[in-house]
Specification:
Structural class: mainly alpha
Strand content: under 5%
Shape: globular
Helix content: over 70%
Radius of gyration: 19 Å
Distance between the termini: 75 Å
Oligomer: single chain
Number of helices: 9
Order of helices and strands: HHHHHHHHH
Number of strands: 0
Length: 138
């Protein structure tokens, strides 16, 4: 039995090291200034869709990630029907060209959304600090 598991999980296409799949390396090798534009480019189709249609796809994506892709929990938290969540998930997959059923994609999304939100927060904080500095100088 153990031999079966070792043979199955030792395949090159099955086992990947954390460093290969997780974008956490961005935090150590790239500054937030370099990473944020890359993430903004990646999520630009989603941002464009949201601005044109006043949609809820970003909040849906965040809730799916937060609930670890438990669709029942995510639908309940978003106060939407399960079929609506499935429709949104398909739309997200189309816009971002991602396979949201793939575990590796889910792990990367978790890291990217954290980095994206953190980068947006830092950018807003820096902007607010500049505004406060310029008003206090006047």
């Amino acid at each position: 039995m153990t031999d079966f598991y070792l043979r199955y999980f030792r395949k090159e296409d099955r086992i990947k090291r954390y460093e290969e799949i997780a974008p956490s390396k961005w935090f150590s090798h790239q500054g937030m200034e370099q990473m944020l534009p890359e993430l903004e480019k990646r999520y630009s189709p989603l941002n464009r869709y949201e601005s044109e249609r006043s949609g809820y796809l970003f909040s849906t994506l965040r809730e799916l990630v937060r609930s670890q892709f438990n669709y029942q929990d995510a639908a309940h938290a978003l106060h939407i029907h399960l079929n609506t969540l499935y429709y949104r998930q398909e739309k997200l997959a189309d816009l971002l060209s991602l396979d949201l059923t793939d575990l590796e994609t889910k792990i990367i999304l978790y890291h990217e959304l954290f980095a994206y939100d953190f980068g947006q927060f830092l950018r807003a904080a820096a902007e607010q600090s500049r505004e406060l500095t310029s008003t206090s100088a006047v």
